[in-house]
Amino acid sequence: MTEQRTALVTGATGGLGAAVAARLSELGHRVVVAGRDTDAAAAIAKELAERTGATTDWVGLDVTDPASVDAARDAVGAVDILVNSAGVLVDAGHDAATVPLELVEQTLAVNTLGAWRVSQAFLPGMLERRWGRIVNISSGTASFTHGIFGAAPAYSLSKVTLNALTVLLAESTKDAGVLVNAVNPGRVRTRMQPTAQRLPAEAAEGIVWAATLPDDGPSGKFLRGDREVMGW
């Protein structure tokens, strides 16, 4: 039987985050649905609890607001699994030479600094208990190996820096029982990519795998949704 852990999923009020929360709940973990829309978070938590029978909670969380993150940490308590799924794509169709820098700032604030802020909030408890899993939702657009996607430069840059953060956090938690990885879920049918073929529930499987790795699992790696290691 899988040992029950407490998992907090940011950006869990829809799309991929909601699918990850659902899968973790189905596996019997206590799941905290986190998002800015508190009504949606509460509704999803209630539905999951009724459907899976697992303990499911919710918390309001704006990853760009330090006070919101601190309040969520105080309200939730100890977290074993953190999935940084909150993200935005607001610069599609722009290029690096002309993209408005306010869009770049907005994107980095959520996709990179938001994940960093939430990780810093919950890492001390993981280190104290010597067990933790952090999964950062990245993107194939951020891979130097495959070619950085230029038609959404702020988004691509935010995921490149998120990958770098993954490596740095993994190094700082080495041999401490905490594994930190980035996952490229592929093109997933969400509000960001409504025409994508891959469904959130399918993409969630690889993320949940990374979130529940055994103690000898990889850390500081860029994983594909099919669990294979990608080139940075």
UniProtKB/TrEMBL annotation:
Matching entries from SUPFAM superfamilies are given as: NAD(P)-binding Rossmann-fold domains (SSF51735)
- Reply yes or no: does the keyword Oxidoreductase apply: yes
Record keywords, A-Z: Oxidoreductase
**Family matches, as InterPro entries:** NAD(P)-bd_dom_sf, SDR_fam
GO molecular function terms attached to this record: oxidoreductase activity
Matching entries from PANTHER family are given as: 5-KETO-D-GLUCONATE 5-REDUCTASE, ALCOHOL DEHYDROGENASE, PUTATIVE (AFU_ORTHOLOGUE AFUA_3G03445)-RELATED
- Describe the family membership recorded for this protein in Swiss-Prot or TrEMBL: Belongs to the short-chain dehydrogenases/reductases (SDR) family.
Q: What is this protein called?
A: Short-chain dehydrogenase
**What is the organism field in this record?**
Micromonospora inyonensis
